Amino acid sequence: MIFGHGWFPAAVGDFEAAVRAQDADAAERAFAQLTEGFGEATDAELHAAGPRFAALLGEVPPGPRAVVAVMTGACVERGADPLACAPGVFAGALDAFEQASVFCERWAAAGRGELPDHEGEGLEEADFERIGYEPVMAWQALPQFEMACVALLNSPRVRRELPGRDGLRAAVARVAELADEPFKCLAYALAVLDDEPLIALDRATGAGFALRISGIGDNFQLHTLLADALIGRGLVAGEAPSAEAVACCRGRAGMVPTTGSFNLVGADGEWIWNEGNPADIPAVDGVRLVVLDPPPYERSWPAGRFFPGMTGELVYERALAPEEAAALLARVSEFAR
User: Fold this and answer.
1) Are the C-beta atoms of 61 and 139 separated by less than 8 Å?
2) Whole-angstrom Cα distance, residue 57 to residue 75?
């Protein structure tokens, strides 16, 4: 198909009108045109379309709904206002994960065995009657809603200003428990902290440092940025990561090899695994706290961002007064007993 000037806004309008009129045939035609030529739309057209897609999402039938959510996320990645698009996508995702919980429960109650994949392999026609059309479609839609939500959560404005993250986190966790499927990208994106205080204590010297983190997707990224902030300033002994590794953990595209500088330990005495995320770090008096120990063995990994579209920040604020650091280290020892 050849797409002429202005075809995309016209197709968006046709799709809106058909969905709101519940004209299934017209909606299917407009939807097919949108999906076929989406890549040909201009940035300006996508800026305008994103909020319109998001506002329409609740009225779109279950079949194409998740694809429209992905299209909304793609519009945001091309410059559409993420805060205007997020409410509709988050509401659709919450509904999908809640319906997917129903799917998992009914599937188990029916004795159907191993869950089907999200493409439908393992489903039978009778499952739509046995379990329900909406729960089946929601189960199939989860990967698309995960993709759409992550695209929106790359925006610090969405993470800071949009309500409803806790409800969606709970719904995702419930499906993850029922399905034994972590939905790790969405779970981690929903857990990302912004403008979050962090205390680091160097056990060897007793020194303590106040920092602040934003947009850090996992503890590999946190580890690298911590090492840069503290070893790079000469505040803690060890080998600092390269400038390239640090840049990739902040905002530069790609990944470069790096080697761990610390063993990170929580206030409870448990290791803080690089595979986790900063939201899992235990707090003392409401502030997350990490103890820096020497690495027990060499650990290397590709340094970069867990979410390539999310800018990571770790800001060094100050050194703690010696008595303040000592008091915290004593609290850590008590906590860990």
Assistant:
1) no
2) 14
d(CA 11, CA 13) in angstroms, rounded, equals: 5
pLDDT of residue 334: 60
pLDDT at 4: 55
Q: How many CB atoms within 10 Å of residue 260?
A: 21
Rounded Cα–Cα distance for residues 158 and 281 (Å): 23
What is the spatial distance between Cα 66 and Cα 140, in angstroms, rounded to a whole number?
A: 9
C-beta of residue 68 within 8 angstroms of C-beta of residue 56 = yes
Tokens for 24, please give them: 């299934």
Which residues, other chains included, contact 328 with Cβ-Cβ below 8 Å and sequence gap of 6+? Answer: 199, 201, 208, 284, 289, 320
What letter represents residue 74's amino acid? Answer: A
CB 261 within 8 A of CB 231: yes
Rounded CA separation 145/140 (Å)? 10
**Structure tokens given for 175:** 């499906």
C-alpha to C-alpha distance for 156 and 192, rounded to whole angstroms: 10
pLDDT tier at 2, thresholds 50, 70, 90: very low
Q: What is the mean pLDDT of residues 57-81?
A: 95
Strands 256-259 and 300-303: antiparallel
